[in-house]
Design a protein that fits this description.
Blueprint: E1 2-3, H1 7-17, H2 23-41, E2 47-53, E3 58-64, E4 68-74, H3 77-87, E5 92-93, E6 96-100, E7 107-111, E8 122-126, E9 129-130, H4 134-145, E10 150-158, H5 160-169, E11 174-180, E12 183-184, E13 190-191, H6 197-202
Parallel strand pairs: 1-11, 4-5, 4-6, 4-8, 8-10, 9-10, 10-11
Antiparallel strand pairs: 2-3, 6-7, 12-13
Helix pairs in contact: 1-2, 2-3
């Protein structure tokens, strides 16, 4: 588990939490946070040595050994994915649709992943919020069934309950968050949190 400690992320996260932020502001700030998260989220990617011919001479370099697949969980993960794509424009994007049943808090899959070579890729699952952990757990299960091995999960805010559930279901999974909040309330919302990231991103509150 990695919690990002960076003054720019802390500043943007404070702005993101504000109930007065408009949908446009919310999307813009979330995009900015995502871009700032990329270096840490991708820090462990494997590279291999290579030679490259510059306009002057040949020199040594390094290239990432496997393609990067960004897997945003619809719909809140879309804005987070946009920020990652800004920093990694050659990334493959494989969407997955999972919603949480508000009465049971259980995940419901409504859009499975397209056919992607997950076995030979670095797969980064993106969701702004890790609340109960049910959605993330199910997404990782689906990806593992499709052959994904190099997996990580990136979120902006996590609840302790969600982290515990995710680590219990998928031991060893790399999880990166900008903040870990206090707890979940009785409705499964993160406290203090920032509300529903999907609703706030797309103005459907």
């Amino acid at each position: 588990m990695t919690i990002l400690k960076h003054p720019l992320i802390a500043d943007r996260l404070t702005r993101l939490r504000s109930k007065d932020a408009s949908s446009q502001e919310f999307r813009s700030i979330l995009h900015n946070i995502a871009t700032l998260m990329v270096p840490e989220v991708t820090a462990s990617l494997t590279t291999a040595p290579c030679c490259v011919q510059t306009p002057i001479e040949e020199t040594d370099g390094r290239l990432i050994t496997m393609p990067i697949v960004l897997t945003p969980i619809l719909r809140a993960g879309l804005t987070l994915a946009e920020g990652f794509i800004t920093a990694i424009p050659d990334a493959i994007v494989a969407h997955i649709g999972i919603r949480r049943d508000d009465s049971t808090l259980n995940p419901e899959v409504y859009y499975p992943n397209p056919s992607v070579d997950f076995a030979n890729s670095n797969t980064i699952v993106l969701d702004p919020m890790l609340a109960t952990g049910g959605t993330a757990i199910e997404a990782i299960r689906i990806l593992k069934r499709q052959g994904a091995k190099q997996l990580s999960f990136a979120c902006v805010i996590a609840a302790p309950e969600g982290l515990e559930a995710l680590h219990s279901a998928h031991p060893g999974l790399s999880v990166i968050a900008a903040a870990v909040d206090r707890c979940l309330d009785k409705n499964g919302y993160i406290c203090p949190g920032l509300g529903d990231a999907g609703d706030r991103s797309f103005g459907t509150m």
